[in-house]
Design goal:
Elements (H helix, E strand, L loop, with lengths): L49 H23 L1
Length: about 70
């Protein structure tokens, strides 16, 4: 029984792990392994700016409110 170097699941037939998609036989950096400890203070992904999303949400809500008032009024 052979296990995937990245996710430790049993490998089937083929060149890639059917669980995580890692190519069989390629090395896995320590930070790419599932379950590897995350260093303190590191971001898990790119931080999205929240202000544009908030503004877009408020604009959509205002447009829906105007549409509702125009239909009922």
């Amino acid at each position: 029984m052979t296990l995937c170097a990245r996710c430790s699941q049993e490998l089937g037939i083929g060149r890639f792990c059917t669980n995580c998609g890692h190519r069989i036989g390629e090395p896995v950096p320590a930070e790419a392994r599932f379950g590897a400890p995350v260093p303190a203070g590191s971001a898990l992904g790119p931080e999205l700016p929240r202000t544009p999303l908030l503004v877009a949400g408020v604009v959509v809500l205002l447009l829906l409110l105007v549409l509702l008032v125009s239909c009922l009024g």
